[in-house]
Specification:
Layout: H1 3-16, H2 18-26, H3 31-40, H4 42-51, H5 55-77, E1 159-161, E2 167-169, E3 176-178, E4 191-193
Amino acid sequence: MSGAGTVIYLLLLVGLAFIPAYIASGKGYSFGGFYAFGFFLFLPALIVSLVLEDKTAAEEREESLRKEISRLRQDINSRPFGETNGKDLDRERIDPICRQCGHQNEAGTKYCTKCGAMLARIQKSEEAVCPKCRDEINDGDGFCGSCGWDLTKKEPGPVLVSTVNGQVVCPECGTAQMSNRLICYKCGTKFEYR
């Protein structure tokens, strides 16, 4: 390369390096850093500067999330231990002792694993609930919004299942069960064995 060609090539590099540096500086990144990057590796610097996220928008989003987390922590810490906002746990407070057979069930089960009876809620409320999943429903609903149960039926009937290696997989929720269970401990589907 001749002396004039080298000078033109260097001037071209100097001029082109401004493009990624200008784009990156508009997004909150270092002009000098991207100028050096663009001078030595123009195309990669251009691509990186184009795909970079705007730093100021990311910082604003991060600050917004920090404020929300701080607000939630203050809300949680201001409550006495065990108290909730009243929405999340009222439906799930279920007595683990079956009122029909007296069997002590595992915590979190909605139906007795011995006799299949629906376990009683500790705090009864007046709102309507789905007979299958016990989630809240509105008067006049045809189907449960949570599990899809046809609300015109009174109680969910048993589902025909087969055992594989001593285990039953609930066809409704996919939870593995022991073969002696009459009902799914997670969703309450009644089983009828082949």
